[in-house]
Amino acid sequence: MVMGLLIVYITLIFLRPMDWNELVYGWPLVNYLAIFLLPAAFFSSTDREKRELWRTPQVKIAVFLLFAASISWLFYLHWFGGAWQTFQDFGKIILLYCLIILLVRDMKSFRIILWAVLLCIAWMAVHGILQIHRGYGFGGAEPLFRKENNIYQIKAFGIFSDPNDLCLVFILALPLLYSELRSLRNFSAKMASGGIIALVVCGAWLTNSRGGFVGLAGMLGALVTLKTKGLRRLFFLICCYVLLILSAPSRVASDAGVVDTGRSTAWGDGIAMFKKYPIFGVGFNGFQDISSEGMVAHNSYISTLTELGLLGYIPWFLLISLTMVQIYRAIKLAEPFSREDSHRLIAIFAALFGYLGGIYFLSRAYDYVLYIFLGFALAETNIVSSKYGFREQIFDAWKKDAKRLVFAALASIPCMWTATRIANALGRG
């Protein structure tokens, strides 16, 4: 029952019927379901499972991140109401992340919830194709038209109403769908999976997203790097990127680069405000208020650094990077035992790698999607490592990993400053 509630909860996040279906339009369905899901998960879990959840380092890091995000309002604007609102809004996302780790404990439950998400993404692809084919999708939603480029971009609802977000979620789905295609035994199921892949590829192309294009390049690079070696790796990397350039959507092909003047200016504003408020930041989701152009950062890393300061940026960076390190370690350890499990881990790693590359040009540090897939990644790593008995080899070194990754987080700041200076110089040129 609890797993069913979790699946419905995540389905509502992706399909957003309260944003387009007349029967439930405007209802806070996600909030209602969260009220039922939390006590249900608490009472259905054993004391041992709850203790194991709290012993998970990423859970402690996520809770500290929520704390840092909440108090970020207290030191710049001294707004206690903002702290409480942040705790509620971001707390729901952190709660969902923890529930995925708590409830997804075996391969069967993992594949069920994964397929629920993949089918939702396929639905969004159909919705987007209908927008281009007949001028509107489900709920009468029309595509976005850009006059400056004379092109249409498909979009979905809620957190996916921006074509960039929609494209990134399509990119997340592709390696996972391919992994599932390889693992399926039934011919009909393979054909259905292949059809969904075709839909998602078409949907990604119709978004005409530059940020999504960067994410796709990162995902393919990670996939090829992990699956090939030597000259074969180099050959496939070159082939992938040539194919990407030749098949780029019209907006990607017509615009020179993904860093325009507005973006680089916003990045500079963020770095400048970080210098003034380096510890606690300027407030969760408060970047737009301090930007000289009145715009968001269009960079999840710089926005997190600016809004949450070091107190929030370091745990945010740790939550992501520690998970990526552990997945990578699990890939290497699982390969001698099961190519199927190894391929699934590779797919999750590549999907997240592409997404993390894409959000360098988008402000998506606190969206549901990132935390849902980070939860999937950790759950799958837990399942595979427990199955083959190398759990200690992956997780026992987390303190040593965390120390190194804290230095990496600090080192990333001058790297972002340098990238911002280069982007501004190129913009002026």
Number of strands: 2
Strand order of the largest sheet: 1-2
Given helix and strand content, the structural type is: mainly alpha
Cα(first) to Cα(last) distance is 60 Å
Please state the CA-atom Rg, rounded to the nearest Å. Answer: 21 Å
Would you mind describing this structure in some detail?
With 429 residues, the protein is mostly helical. It folds into 3 domains: 1-44, no CATH class; 58-103 and 264-338 and 351-429, no CATH class; 121-256, no CATH class. It is built from 19 helices and 2 strands. It has helices at residues 2-15, 29-44, 47-55, 57-71, 73-76, 80-103, 107-134, 163-183, 187-206, 210-227, 230-246, 250-254, 261-276, 287-290, 300-334, 339-358, 368-388, 391-395, 398-428; strands at 144-146, 151-153.
Which descriptors apply to this entry?
two-stranded antiparallel sheet, 429 residues, single chain, mainly alpha, globular, 3 domains
Write a concise synopsis of the structure shown.
The protein is an all-alpha fold. The chain is built from 19 helices and two strands. It has helices at 2-15, 29-44, 47-55, 57-71, 73-76, 80-103, 107-134, 163-183, 187-206, 210-227, 230-246, 250-254, 261-276, 287-290, 300-334, 339-358, 368-388, 391-395, 398-428; strands spanning 144-146, 151-153.
